[in-house]
Structure formats: C-alpha cells, structure tokens
C-alpha cells in the first residue's frame, strides 16, 4: 500500500524498459501462441508499431475443456525464439506451479490470469521467484480482494507486481465484460504498484479496444495489454476481440496522442 511505500514502484528490465515509469508500455500479441510463424509475424508487427513487450498464451485457461488448450511448452519455446529475434520482452500465463521452472527460462513477466487470481498456492509460488508478475483481476473480484491477492505475492518477497484491470462480470451483455476504469485511479491512490488496462478482455470486442485503450491512458494507467492477431477470423481463441496489425498501428498512434496530453 501507499502507507507502506510512498513512491511509485518502477519495474526495470535489463534492456532498460520500465513499467511504472514515465513511458506507457504496451504488451501486445495473440491471445494464444498458435505457431512459430504466426508468433514471429505478429511480434515483428507489434514491435514496428512501438510495443516493447510481446504477449502470447502457451497455457490457455479455456471455459470448455474441448477447445484449444494452448501449445504448452512448445509455445514457450516459440516465445523464447521471438524474444531472441526481436529483442521484445515476453509475457505469458502460468496456470500450474509445475510449469514455473520452464517459465523462468522462457519469459520475462509471469501472468496470473483472472481465473487464478485467488489460487493462493500459485500466488505464493510466484511470490518466491525473482521475476515480475502481472496479476489480473478476477472475473468477480472486488478491488479489496484483488489487492489481497497481490499481498499473497508480495508477502513472499516478490514486490514486482503489475495490477491488471481486465473487466468484471456485470449484468451488461453488449460487451463480454465491463471494463472497470474506476479501478485505475482507485488502485493508483491505494497502491504504489503499476496499473495496466486490458481493453481486449475488458470489452471482448475489437471495435471497442482502441477507444477503451485511450480511456485507460486518460484514466492514468501505466501500461496496456492488447490482443493482436494476423487473421482474427481464424484465431484459435479470442478472435472477436483481436486487432489486425494495421488497426494496432492506429491504436498506438492514438495512445501516444492521449499519453502526451495527460
Ligand atoms: C489472456 O490474457 O489471454 C487471458 C486469458 O486473460 P484473462 O485471465 O484476463 O481472462
Ligand atoms: Mn485472450
């Protein structure tokens, strides 16, 4: 909390990229790593647009067990390769502590997904490693519960935590979730941790991603996470909320404009 630490936490990576510093960082890439070619293509495009961090799920927490579950360790290897080729930092989701050693090798930021926000054993485990963690807000979690989940990580020693607002369940059905932008200034006032907005899962609709990315930046977030796919119609997961690379170029331009105004 702010009471414990007044100054903002700034996470600094060995290549000089910071999260929580003056620059808005954008993590972009496909929902799921689908193949080496797909990932490399999207990685090059998001890099060209100005993103410094590549996202892509290797272990996918799907609603149905009969849908694509991710490439697993093979996906992690593709991420490593994309990191090597592009110099981008890499973030991917951890669902099972047994995959933690492989994650330590292949990724720069560990993502804890919304569905695991209160998987306390998993939180303790990532609290004990020396790698930044992106913690996503649970589907129906209050901000208090979200912060207590972050405490599970911090209490084991790892203070490099990024808080992610990714939309919550409400009665509204026009969007997949309701992006709770109130959470941004609330979190910024209560904690010293960097705050990230995910307008892709927050809306579930590609046509709403850019406006809500702009809104997130205007509300004071430190970073964004955006799903980008080379061919959203054929995506293995979350195609309906994924931007084509050309649309992502425009998002980046618009975000830069808002960032320079706030
Ligand atoms: C994701 O980032 O692809 C994801 C599964 O997100 P969430 O945990 O927010 O649903
Ligand atoms: Mn997704």
TrEMBL record:
Residues 9-259 form the DAHP synthetase I/KDSA domain. One of its GO terms (biological process) is aromatic amino acid family biosynthetic process. The chain holds residues 73 to 334 of 339 of the full protein. GO terms for molecular function: aldehyde-lyase activity; transferase activity. Keywords: Transferase. This is Phospho-2-dehydro-3-deoxyheptonate aldolase.
